[in-house]
């Protein structure tokens, strides 16, 4: 499912206009992004949690040329699936 499919599903489920449901989805995504940018943690019970992990600088290798390069430190979002979601997905197998 992509963002436009999510907007469409919300519009159909709650009998909203496409524009209104798009606005709701954008507000949710913007709020989640803002919290992660501030370094916060997002936990949605039964679904999972989002955190930002810090990665230190290290020496890497360019896969094309084999040249050793310096990789700068970075922060990346990380998702950890919740127990309830994991069990629901696993039960479908």
Q: What would the keywords be for this entry?
A:
three-stranded antiparallel sheet; 93 residues; alpha+beta; HU Protein, Chain A; two-stranded antiparallel ribbon; 3 helices; 2 domains
How would you summarize the topology of this molecule?
Blueprint: H1 3-14, H2 18-37, E1 42-44, E2 48-55, E3 58-61, E4 68-71, E5 74-81, H3 83-91
Antiparallel strand pairs: 1-2, 2-5, 3-4
Helix pairs in contact: 1-2
What does this structure look like?
The structure is a single chain. With 93 residues, the protein is an alpha+beta fold. It has 2 domains: 1-38; 41-93, IHF-like DNA-binding proteins (HU Protein, Chain A). Helices cover 44% and strands 29% of the residues. It has 3 helices and 5 strands. It has helices spanning 3-14, 18-37, 83-91; strands at residues 42-44, 48-55, 58-61, 68-71, 74-81. The strands form 2 sheets. A 3-stranded antiparallel β-sheet has the order 1-2-5. A hairpin with a 3-residue loop joins β1 (42-44) and β2 (48-55). α1 crosses α2. It is elongated and about 55 Å long. The mean pLDDT is 95. This is DNA-binding protein. One of its GO terms (cellular component) is cytosol. Belongs to the bacterial histone-like protein family.
How do you describe this structure in short?
The protein is α+β, with helices and mostly antiparallel strands. It is 44% helix and 29% strand. The strands form 2 sheets. It has a 3-stranded antiparallel β-sheet.
CATH superfamily of the largest domain: IHF-like DNA-binding proteins
How many beta-strand segments? 5
- The ordered H/E elements are HHEEEEEH
Q: Count of helices? A: 3
- Domains counted in the coordinates: how many? 2
- Rg to the nearest angstrom? 19 Å
Terminal Cα separation, in Å?
20 Å
Main sheet characteristics = 3 strands, antiparallel
Uncertain stretches: none
CATH topology title of the largest domain:
HU Protein, Chain A
Shape: elongated
Level of helix content?
40-55%
State the strand order across the main sheet.
Answer: 1-2-5
CATH class of the largest domain: Few Secondary Structures
**CATH A-level architecture of the largest domain:** Irregular
Q: What is the arithmetic mean of pLDDT? A: 95
Instruction: Indicate the proportion of strand residues.
Output: 25-35%
The helix/strand class is alpha+beta
GO molecular function, one term: DNA binding
Keywords: DNA-binding
InterPro entries: Hist_DNA-bd (IPR000119), IHF-like_DNA-bd_dom_sf (IPR010992)
Family: Belongs to the bacterial histone-like protein family.
């Amino acid at each position: 499912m992509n963002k436009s499919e999510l907007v469409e599903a919300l519009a159909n489920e709650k009998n909203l206009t496409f524009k209104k449901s798009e606005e709701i989805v954008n507000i949710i995504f913007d709020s989640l992004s803002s919290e992660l940018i501030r370094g916060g943690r997002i936990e949605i019970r039964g679904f999972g949690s989002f955190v930002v992990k810090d990665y230190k600088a290290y020496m890497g290798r360019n896969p094309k040329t084999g040249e050793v390069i310096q990789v700068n430190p970075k922060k990346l979002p990380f998702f950890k699936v919740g127990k309830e979601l994991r069990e629901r997905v696993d039960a479908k197998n």
